[in-house]
Amino acid sequence: MAEQQKNNPLHGITLEKIVTDLQVHYGWSELGYMLRFECFINNPSIKSSLKFLRKTPWARKKVEDLFLSTFHK
What we know:
This protein has 73 residues and is mainly α. Helix content is 73%, strand content 0%. It has helices at 2-5, 15-26, 28-35, 38-41, 46-55, 57-71. Helix 2 (15-26) packs across helix 3 (28-35) and helix 5 crosses helix 6 (57-71). It is globular. The model has no long low-confidence stretch (mean pLDDT 92).
């Protein structure tokens, strides 16, 4: 398993850390504008965002891609 993950830049980074880091960097309003997810627009919170992203793989992928393009250039 570790062999498969060695080239994964997200290995060991929790979804909570990804969302938290993006929120600190951009803020909720900018995240809502960039990604257009309700969980970032209406009463945003880390908890509600995690709940949505864990159930919605395509949205999680967008958030992970934004994290990588922001912090792993």
